Amino acid sequence: MNQSWLDQLSEIGADEQALTSTQANAPADSIQFLDRSDLAVVRFSGADVNTFLQAQTCNDHALLNPEKAQLNGYCSPKGRLLALPTVANDASAEEVFWLLPKEVVDSVVKRLTMFVLRSEVSIVVESDWVVMGLTIPTKKLAAPHEPWFGQQDSPALSSWVTHAHSVIKMHPALGQTRTLVFGTMANIKSSLESCRAAAPAKLRDIVWASSASWILGDIEAGVPMIVAGTQDAFVPQMVNMEAVEGLSFTKGCYPGQEIVARMQYLGKLKRTMVRFSGAQAVAVNAGDKIRAGDDENAGEVVAAASTHDGIELLAVIKTAADPDAFQLGDAKLCVQSLPYA
């Protein structure tokens, strides 16, 4: 975590140990401020920005607007995901922001820049911007929280700008409404202070948590991510991109589009993403292999989070494998439900 940012958060009462924990341990019945300094903010601007991004990504960029964010995919010519950004407009709809894991941002920006050519497009990684996650139990959502959490019935991927920063309402999980907030360090710090002050007295005990707790929510929501260990490994359908509104089959051409379309209309999907839990705490990273019986390559980890009870993870597995035979190291894995078919 950025030490300067950690120092600023400490000034408003942040728990440094909780923010840097590698274990997801935030109580689900609390308001949480979660570190997302694992994410970078990339700003796209220029007269041709929307045309450029429409031609590069697998979701329909034309559907993006200041009130509607989206998940999107950036594929290689082989149709495999190099990045899976969360995408939002600014209030004027003239600029576009991508939230990307820092470990892939340099390679993705470098590749995108190769295709700008004569287009009027600027791509800048905002080094002084930060991302925080905010969660609140949905049953406790009330008017004082609306600038940070939106209306109770507003759908996932709603977005808005407030207090000089941007907010994206993400997919709910663990009985919580979850938002990502991004902007300059100064604006986010000010907003966190305001959010804390606005909470009713009985909710002022804010819990600080690390990115591991956010990733646990993504796992329960079935929202995939692409990091360095899984770049160029999965076509969008393998990580359930249709189910989280991250893939369009009507938008037109983009790198890898023919392969993605062929998989949808002519092929049979032999690998798909499922959610697992394991009672043993084992070291696990995205890209690690999962075995089933004698098959040492029956699956591949997409995302994982350690908890008090063991591990939770998303993995792309062979659909033909025995669902009761999956193991990660010596840990038996049990298939868990996802909130979509």
Write the topology of this structure:
Blueprint lengths: L2 H9 L4 H4 L12 E4 L3 E7 L3 H6 L15 E2 L2 E2 L5 E3 L2 E4 L6 E6 H13 L7 E4 L3 E9 L8 H4 L9 E4 L2 E5 L6 E9 H14 L8 E3 L1 H11 L35 H9 L5 E8 L10 E4 L2 E13 L2 E9 L7 E3 L2 E2 L1 E3 L5
Biggest pleated sheet: 7 strands, antiparallel
Instruction: Work out the count of structural domains.
Output: 2
Which percent range fits the helix content? Answer: 10-25%
Strand content: 25-35%
The second-level CATH architecture of the largest domain is: 2-Layer Sandwich
- Identify the CATH class of the largest domain: Alpha Beta
Strand order of the largest sheet: 19-18-15-16-17-14-20
Give the name of the CATH superfamily of the largest domain: Probable tRNA modification gtpase trme, domain 1
Mean pLDDT: 91
**CATH fold-level label of the largest domain:** Gyrase A, domain 2
Structural class: alpha+beta
Total strands: the figure is 20
Number of helices: 8
Q: What integer value in Å does the Rg equal?
A: 20 Å
Uncertain segments are: none
Judging from the principal axes of the Cα atoms, what is the shape? globular
Helices and strands, in order, run as HHEEHEEEEEHEEHEEEHEHHEEEEEEE
Q: Gap between N and C termini, in Å? A: 36 Å
Q: How would you summarize this macromolecular structure in one to three sentences?
A:
This protein is of the alpha+beta class. The chain has two domains: 1-267, Probable tRNA modification gtpase trme, domain 1 (Gyrase A, domain 2); 270-335, Aminomethyltransferase beta-barrel domains (Elongation Factor Tu (Ef-tu), domain 3, Beta Barrel).
